[in-house]
Amino acid sequence: MRRLTRRLALPIFGVFWITVLLFWVTQRKLEAPPGTEVQTPKPSVQWELQGPSPTCQPAASAVPGWLRASPRKTPSDGDWDDLWDQFDERRYLNAKKWRVGDDPYKLHAFNQRESERIPSNRVVPDTRHNRCALLVYCKDLPPTSIIITFHNEARSTLLRTVRSILNRTPMHLIQEIILVDDFSSDPDDCNQLIKLPKVKCLRNNERQGLVRSRIRGADIAQGATLTFLDSHCEVNKDWLQPLLHRVKEDYTRVVCPVIDIINLDTFNYIESASELRGGFDWSLHFHWEQLSPEQKARRLDPTEPIRTPVIAGGLFVIDKAWFDYLGKYDTDMDIWGGENFEISFRVWMCRGSLEIIPCSRVGHVFRKKHPYAFPNGNTNTYIKNTKRTAEVWMDDYKQYYYAARPFALERPFGNIRSRVMLRANLQCQDFKWYLENVYPELRIPKDSSILKGSIRQRHKCLASQKQNNQGSPNLKLRPCVKFKGEESKAQVWAFTYTQQIIQEELCLSVVTLFPGAPVILAVCKNGDEKQQWTKSGSHIEHMASHLCLDTDMFGDSTEAGTEVVINPCESSLMSQHWDIVSS
Ligand SMILES: [Mn+2]
């Protein structure tokens, strides 16, 4: 008996140990924090330089804990169904419906009829890379305050934005949805939506513009992070978790989704390229740009975040305390435009970073024009906002901004003292650092000189002439005027280092590259060969066509019959002889 026990003891002991070992291993696997399973970016050189390694542990905040809002209790699934039932969607939409015979593009610059035909809870294709579905995010992400500002948004698109959020976001991640109605004509556009779960409505008593409206929303937000969205969006599957995850790891990151395209005619949801980032030229004009071949080669994992020099501005997540600490926004910026450069430069230069997260996708209706009026005109507002950005953040490099936008020089831009002080208090890097470390691809022009003055043919001057209720002004030869005022403004031109001939935001351009083609005024577009000119002797040569700026007389040879064209260069022709008299 004793021998048997002794013989069995060894195997029993072995089995016992294997069981204990197995138990221990499985327990460890279950207990492992979710962050360790997250597919982290391959440590390329750039990534190693940026921020701490991904974990679910938040980095220490710049702001004391008591300043941070504590998340509130969220309603249960039962409450949530009741809330939905209280909202009469059909009644909300029908009150403002497109009517047969009206132009469906008139009010919103997109196809209102099509937008209304599409259900508010439609399914959109999952446009993420298939590896995104494998990622695991922190389970204890804090709820966010979603802030949507709008001015006379179509009810159908506004509602679809909100419903897509409620349908495709885990409820516990939404602290609240704050709609900021920037003085729309009908307060009910916003007010009726507070019957939806989590939705709050703030209304401005006068038009404030995007920046001040967003700050108003941010100031009442109770979430630890702020999620800014546009009012004509549809969020895609699991859009929020990857954004909140990145901010939780490091609160200095400001993160954006990839912006898919909702077609403005058909409202089709279209996947956009994911390997893009935000770029700009010296006129502070935003564009999307491809990653360079080297950057693409370094990306081993398509789910890796993309560092971006600037954000498009409409959609992003930022830590609330970090947003406040960094000085929110420049409240003297009006309506829309340019604020994205200001916040982008500020975040980078004051020790934060900007990222596009490929696994987060949000659709947006891209329009060709603004459907609403700017009280001071579209260009004036854009120039004021970008000029404030250049003056506060670009140091001596602002000369290239002025060289690209010569007419911004004499524009009023308000007082910037508080923003300059903010930059000093935050002890931010200078713009040279930004160019070297964040956007080395932006080339610094060799020349920033501006030649400004009138373009004369004998005693006549090249002048723009506004047309009644039409887009771009005409080009004419007019008697030269010296005194100040609208008339003389129409005769001032600037030759820039980009080879453009500019007046305000418009450039001398040609319709075609053939002899006799009319010369017109068109919105300046960097690198557009139709807009590039060079002065050679007394000629002004169009570079792409090698034709010369000329005038043709039609009919009665009066001023009204003069047309500005391009023709084969001939040195003897007086109609091709131009003098530039600087002012
Ligand atoms: Mn938009």
TrEMBL record:
One of its GO terms (biological process) is protein O-linked glycosylation. It is a single-pass type II membrane protein. Pathway: Protein modification; protein glycosylation. The keyword ATP-binding does not apply. It comes from Oryctolagus cuniculus. Its cofactor is Mn(2+). The keyword Glycosyltransferase applies. Belongs to the glycosyltransferase 2 family. GalNAc-T subfamily. This is Polypeptide N-acetylgalactosaminyltransferase. It is found in: Golgi apparatus membrane. GO terms for molecular function: carbohydrate binding; metal ion binding; polypeptide N-acetylgalactosaminyltransferase activity. It holds the Pfam family Glycos_transf_2.
